[in-house]
Amino acid sequence: MATDRTDRAEDLARVTAEVVACRACPRLVVWREKVAVDKRAAFADEDYWGRPVPSFGDPGARLLVVGLAPAAHGGNRTGRVFTGDRSGDWLFASMYRTGWTNQPVSKHADDGLELYGAFIAAVVRCAPPLNKPTTDERDRCLPYLVRELELLTEVRVIVTLGSFGWDGALRALAQLGTEIPRPKPRFGHLAEVTVGHHTLIGSYHPSQQNTFTGKLTEEMLDAVFVRAHELSD
Length: 233
Fold this sequence. Notes:
By secondary structure, this protein is α/β, with parallel strands linked by helices. It has a single domain, classed as Uracil-DNA Glycosylase, subunit E (3-Layer(aba) Sandwich), CATH 3.40.470. It contains 8 helices and 6 strands; from the N terminus they run H-H-E-E-H-H-E-H-E-H-E-E-H-H. Strands 1-3-2-4-6-5 form a 6-stranded mixed beta sheet, sandwiched between helices. The model has no long low-confidence stretch (mean pLDDT 96).
């Protein structure tokens, strides 16, 4: 267990190195590497990352944001989760408006983005076909999230983007020995539940399916991160 911020950062860096080298899920390895070769026409001149995408953020974070998985032409291209895709555009704009980041956009991994007291992860670290990991792929990847939660000792609030993130966060906490309330807490936008010394807040995922249809608005997403401040400050 990390004893101070420097130790914690070093331990998190070791998790990152293991994530980037992972080849545990054959289907995901084939898919992420195929996408990196085929590319999207708009990014044809770019070198794709094409590997598992690690978490990133403040080692002293009070807030952990948990998504589903990297986007094929987002994180799988840029090497940073939620970076370079429409979901990330919504996420970082909201986190900027509510005081969690230094800038409202994130286009590539060295664009100067800083997170203030926040850390961003995903349940699955490789881009999955159709954005749908299997349960086996989820379970093989989940230990990375478990280890990060164990190291991020100052996290008090976990914002989960979508039901997959909500379920993954609960599973990770259970693996750490935290008692999960029964019946199992149900996901919903602004759903809130205390689990051990963490509070989970649910948010609809900022996917185009949700933002284009108005299921998720800027005001709704901002409310999630305002509430995260109230619970963690």
